Amino acid sequence: MTSKRASFAALTLMFGIIAVDQITKWAVVENLEEQRAYPVIGEFFRLYLVRNPGAAFSMGTSATIVFSIFQLVAFVACIVLALRTRYIAGALPIGLIGGGAAGNLVDRIFREPGGMHGHVVDFLSFGSFAIFNVADAAITVGVVCYLIYAFFIEPADHVREEREEREQQEEPGEEQEDASEEVSR
After folding, report:
1. Is the CB of residue 47 less than 8 Å from the CB of residue 125?
2. Does the keyword Transmembrane apply (predicted)?
């Protein structure tokens, strides 16, 4: 796959995640009351609108600006990586992580109280697990995809490339042996 295709895939996924995240947050804010459970699958899965000034599990509520800066850096880094990626397997985690970081960054910038201090809209609730949103899910899945890529796919690609290089280096030597055998006959 060409790097242009992989870059296009990463950027398309990234901006798709941002769009889906913001549309779902808009729909939830417009249609649900805060702090009220809306069962979807009993108590296992429900919609529950909260505004989170902190990070996962509402930790660090007084460090909103730190999370905003971290998300901005992550988004910019993912844009740069998206433009440099050569493989679709590498494009997937870049798009997911970048889109998730940017989705929550939009909340930090534009939602109350605003100016990099905004509260993130969370609304997906599974059992007694944390309440999260599409951007959070994208980041989590992106990190898992990256770990799979880094520990399994990339090393396998590296081994395959080394083997192909060795085979290419061996081929000219074999041809020379065949030619010298033919000359001696």
Report:
1. yes
2. yes
Cα 78 to Cα 57: distance, rounded to the nearest angstrom: 24
pTM of the model: 0.82
* Separation between Cα atoms, residue 134 and residue 125, nearest integer Å: 12
DSSP-assigned states of every residue in the chain: --HHHHHHHHHHHHHHHHHHHHHHHHHHHHH--BT-EEEEETTTEEEEEEEESSSGGG--TT-HHHHHHHHHHHHHHHHHHHHH---HHHHHHHHHHHHHHHHHHHHHHHSTT-TT-PPEEEEEEETTSPEE-HHHHHHHHHHHHHHHIIIIIHHHHHHHHHHHHHHHHHHHHHHHHHHHHHHH-
Which residue reads 């990586």 in tokens? Answer: 81
| Closest CA relative to residue 28, chosen from 120, 102, 164 | 120
Q: Tens digits of per-residue pLDDT, 75-103? A: 999 999 999 998 888 999 999 999 999 99
**Encoded tokens for 82:** 């998206």
Name the residues annotated as catalytic: 122, 136
